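Listing S7. Sequence submitted for prediction.
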Amino acid sequence: MTDLSNVLVPTSADEAAKAFGDGAGIVVLAGGTTVVPALKLGRLQSARTLYLGKAGLDRIERGDGTFSIGAMTPVSALVDGAPEPLATFARQVADYEIRGQATIGGNLCAAPGGTTPTGDLQAPLLALDARIRSVGAGGARTASVEDFLAAGPDGRLVVEIEVDAPKRAGAAAVRRPHAHAYSVLAVAAAETANGVRVAILGAGPRAVRAASVEQALAGGASAEEAARKALDDVEPQDDALATAWYRRQVLPGLVERALNDLKGPG
């Protein structure tokens, strides 16, 4: 591992885990698309920076219907290498340059946006019931993506994300025509071994599961009927892209579109 004063550059996952320790005083630099601007603007302070670009965490491995995705895998590699609806959401992240630089681990751990939604990939990872492998105080740990997001990334270094290919997947989004193509509101749906899971991005600080929609579907409701339950699961907010009122009007229809979009890998 290279130690450049206050910048640590591990060359393996084990070195990265050792350098990270319990995360105290460490800023993790992956693709840098959100961290570097925050550092430049003084919004983020760090005694030491851990750069993961040489740690060997940028790969996608597939076996028996399971995808193991290294935390440093660029978003662009997910477009053709990840299962739906993750691939579709990756395709809609920002622009070509950002997708080539940003990473799945960085996107998962993105702090809640102040003026625009962040963490675009959280919704499809929730829909796919992803497992998050991380290291930190107490050693290695594997947690559901829901538990990981609920606890927050502080004190944990994500090294790998694992998802199973769904039976069917669907997606729907309202996107702003802009150089970085921010998603105003988006819905991911996937039929897993445990039934259909639905997640919503853009209706709050982080992506959330639409449990009421899922329960309605499990009870035999149609896509239209289940979609009406979406507002039971979220409290839309105003931000720089749209008003809470607009999101409340649009969300049920967007959920219905995602459910009607459910289709198999073929």
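Caption to Listing S7: primary sequence and predicted structure tokens for the chain studied. The radius of gyration is 18 Å. Residues 244-260 form the longest helix (17 residues).
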